[in-house]
Structures are given as C-alpha cells and as structure tokens.
Amino acid sequence: MPHPPVTLRDVAARAGVHPATASRALNPETRILVSEDTAQRVLDAAEALGYSPNPVARSLRTRRSHTVGVLIPDLNNPLFPPIVRGLEDRLAVDGYVALIGNTDSDDQRERMVFDQMRARHVDGLVLATARLHHPLLAEASRADLPVVLINRLAQDYSFPSVSVDNERGVRMAVEHLAGLGHRRIAYIAGPQELSTGLSRYRGFVTAMESSGLPVDDDLVVFAKSFTVEEGMRCSRLLLDRGAGGAPEAPGATGAPECTAIAAGNDMLAVGCYAALDETGLSCPEDISVVGFNDMPFIDRLRPPLTTVRFPHYQVGTEAAQLLLERIAEHAGPVKILYLAPELVVRGSTARVSG
Description:
single chain; alpha/beta; 6-stranded parallel beta sheet; 4-stranded parallel beta sheet; 12 strands
C-alpha cells in the first residue's frame, strides 16, 4: 500500500508548532511573520518529511493560483521563444508559472484558450495577440484581470505594454537604404489591425518623407499576416508591377521598379527572398532587402538579412515585471515601455549599382 501524503499537520507536529504557523513559515510571502528560528525549524521538518504544498488548496486560501496565462499568436515564429523565456525566468523569481497558449492567430482558438485560462484562475494574462480593437481586452478589463501586452499596444493605451520603438526602427532601416543611394524603396506592411503593422507603416511613410523620397502607392503592399507565405505573395505583387529601373535579370518577366524592399518583419522578408529566387533576381545585387525583429537564426540566411534588432529576452522580463506589479497593486499608472531598436547591417543590402 502506498504511504498517505504528508500533510501540513504532519509538518507542524514534527516542528512543534501550530499548523497556521507552519503555513505562514512555508509561504515566502508570509514567512516574515514568523521568527527566523521557527521558520527554519518548519522548513527543516518539511524537507525531512518530503512535504510538498498543495497548490490548489493554497490557491483556495489565498485566491492566488501563482499562474499566468500567456497567449502567443504563432509559436512557429522564432521571435517569441526568447520573449517567453524572459517572461518565465522573471515570473519564476516570484514563484509564478506561465501557461502558454498558441492561438495560430485564429479568433475562435484564442477565445477557447482565453476562457480555459480564466477557468484555471490565472492571476493575470500576458497577450502577444492583441489587435487595436480587441473584444477580449474589454472583457479582461471588466473582470478586473491584470493584463500586460507584449509587442502590441491597445488603441486606447489602457493596458500596460512592452514593445520596441517601431517607428524609430523603421526610420533607421529607411535611412540606411537611402544612404546606399536607393530612391525607389518598396514596403511590405504588416496587418494594419495590429499595432506593430500600423506603427511600422506609419514609420515608413514618415521616414521616406523626411528623407525626401516619394511614397509610391504601387510600391506598398499590405500583408494579411506576418508570415513567410504572405511575404512571398506581397513580393510577387511588387515584382509583377515592375516596369523598368533595374537591369533585366535572367528568367525575370520584368525588371523591378524598386531597388530595395523594406519588410514589416523578418518573416515577410524571408518570403521576399523566396519570391526573388522564383524570378531569378539576386539579393542584394538586384534588390536590397531589410527586415525587422532580428529573430534567431536570421543571420544564417544567404545573404544574411539586414534587420532591426531589439532585446527579445528583455521584452519578456519587463512584461513579467509589469504584470507582477499589476497583480500586487491592481491599480497605479499604466506603464508603456518602448525598448530601443538597433539596425544590424548584413549582406542583404548594398549600394545601388550604376
């Protein structure tokens, strides 16, 4: 017969204290209420008996589950694992565990994951899925559930968030291309219902204007999602619109009108590479390409991708810190953190030839 599980009363009896005192000593948040000698005696007793606290029972007493729900739009995107790692590492310091939910950018799946996490009484949510107008955000607000956004902003800025300074990052990319002599710069914009897609597009328009370059509507394509497939589709559209401007490439149906393409993120840029290969064009000899995010392994492309970098791991740690503050206080000012971008120049961009 298996031995019955060790209970809190067993630990208290071995340490010679009341069960309530043992409970306070075993909880890091209330241990300060117990003398140091007593707390150590209880901890020693728990270790000797092999006692493990019941997290369900504790959550019923404290109304805290010490779990956090994290909604990610696409775990296949290499951008998110280092962000999640930073989030988990910071949460662990305070005894919290992250429950990861992948939504595949699907509204029904997101609703299911959101509801299941609420049913598990998570203490807060970290959302990388938020759109500018998002019904789940309103629902979370009505439920007084602490929420922090990562790599996203809400339309009304009523939720804490951590993201990169997107407009500044795109400005760096455009200034880099302009400095290489590019005048006809195309742009593959991300979805405009996402703050990243919208702010980066606005940053592109502003950067082109400040560089004295025209924004040609024919050289701007809007992707439906931040995916390689959408990058291919949008790049094909740009190349099909080509009407002279670069030397004819072997196998190409028409020379591209642009000499450079800036993509709203690295996944779109990877799709751009594939479209260039299809048409026999070379990067950067025929067209320079710039991405955004500097996701892991992007430097292994051929040629390595010039892109805008920001500290992914720090996005996670900062988001965890903001969420822990909201859980503890449930009030206070809404903090919006913008991390500084950095342009990483690699082999995908070159000076305009001729």
